[in-house]
Amino acid sequence: MATDYRRRSRRKRRPSGPPPWLWAAAGLVVGLFVAFLVFLKVSHDQTFSEQAALELPAEPVAPARPRTHKAPAPPPKPRFDFYNLLPEMEVIVPEETIQGTPTREGVKRVEKPGTYLLQAGSFRSRKQADQLRAKLALLGMETRIQTVSVNHKQSWHRVRVGPFNNLRDLNQARSLLKKNGIDAILIRLKG
Prior knowledge:
The chain is an alpha+beta fold. 37% of the residues lie in helices and 19% in strands.
């Protein structure tokens, strides 16, 4: 007995049970319901604590004593010391204290080892600071602009070159700046 399989219909069986989107919707509804219950619990606890605070008996108030004029308490001691330490970490080196042989540009060579910065300029305008920084970039010097506040009112923009750990590089930079008409301030970093 031969069976004819051609005529048999090929239907795909559907999985039994609800579709997946229905499960997702049910999960969303349950999640929103739980969130609503938590919201009610939190708001109920807040209103209950506010009512309890209002119902507490007031504590008797002691009669007021006449006030005497006392000196104001000293301001609290700052929690951080770096506000005081930062200014002490940079020392401006006056040109007359540098003891070294002068270069062709008339700049004395620094011979005392350490870490140094060169401040090429200080401006109230950020635009002027950016112009000097661009000029120094054309000379091949890597610079940065440091913005500082003086008396919490005025902002100054310092154009700085460095830091230099190598004295040869420092002296070359000082000579290059002097050659291009820029009188830089030498700053020694403590540390």
